[in-house]
Design a protein that fits this description.
homodimer; 8-stranded antiparallel β-sheet; 6 helices; 20% helix
Amino acid sequence: MIFHIETLMLVSVSLNEIYSALTGGPCVFITSRSADGVDDAMANAWNMLHGMAPAVVTASLMTDHTTTKNILATGVFGISVPGTSLQKKLLASGCCHGWEVGDKFVKCSLEKLEGEALPVPLVGGALAHLECRLTEPDLLARAGILVGEPVAARVDERYWENGLFTCEGRPESTMHSAGEFSFFTRGPVRGW
Amino acid sequence: MIFHIETLMLVSVSLNEIYSALTGGPCVFITSRSADGVDDAMANAWNMLHGMAPAVVTASLMTDHTTTKNILATGVFGISVPGTSLQKKLLASGCCHGWEVGDKFVKCSLEKLEGEALPVPLVGGALAHLECRLTEPDLLARAGILVGEPVAARVDERYWENGLFTCEGRPESTMHSAGEFSFFTRGPVRGW
């Protein structure tokens, strides 16, 4: 039932607007599926946009990550942007390797949400979800720099306002690495 | 005199620790010098680490940026991480092009701090400064993805504690893009 409720709360958003869920540097889950169907989700603190309308996304991986191997094999990946309620599961997913534990969704008790446009798992309960196609396979294989183009995006409708992702006045915030084993949440939003 | 005071407050920090000034997704100045000596500083909201110890830095540029041309010509660049006191100057530096206005430090009334290790300008009054060598010139020229290795780093000593950059309890915070024309400052830091 929880799965059903979460799904109902997601709204599809434009690829010209979804950038707002990633700008500002949140920690995310990067999700993938191996060629033989084992799902993975890794915690990622280092990611950036490389285009806004439509969005282009990048993330720092390591070439020997299970995530890297999965994405090179399938050409697709997901990004789920968690709020603070997923703090412990985000940490857990960053503290084990897919090649050690198998399906990370099972190991870390992550709720699985299927992609709508691409065969990728996503992390249910997160505030925003992107389904992406890999665009720079050689760069990923050589240097561990992931670049992709979202083809579908959904956001928890409570965190979407006037075409913009926002945590202002909401119960959850994105989490941002503060170095070592700490993070900060979003402070007040101001105009430039 | 202000220049002198600011300089005295900077401490050199290890390339294994400076990552903490960039993790979390702050807006930064990316600074550069043209082959014929014209200095530039651009506002950049999209950057990420790609290594921690020692730090590797990346940023999203456009191939026709003055910054891109300068960095391809010289092979070096700077990153200055501003706090909220530089909010208006950061915005100003993002609202004009070097090829239109010439020296951005002059145009935007930025205080200039010379690099110690590399011939790059840095933005005085910022909380942290990195002097970097370009490592992926072809990637920058082709795709606008900047990758570099810091060779020197300094931090305002008031924002450095136990080998970690922190804004907790300090008067200024880094600024993080919230989409459109808004940003958020750092909320409280918590342990994972």
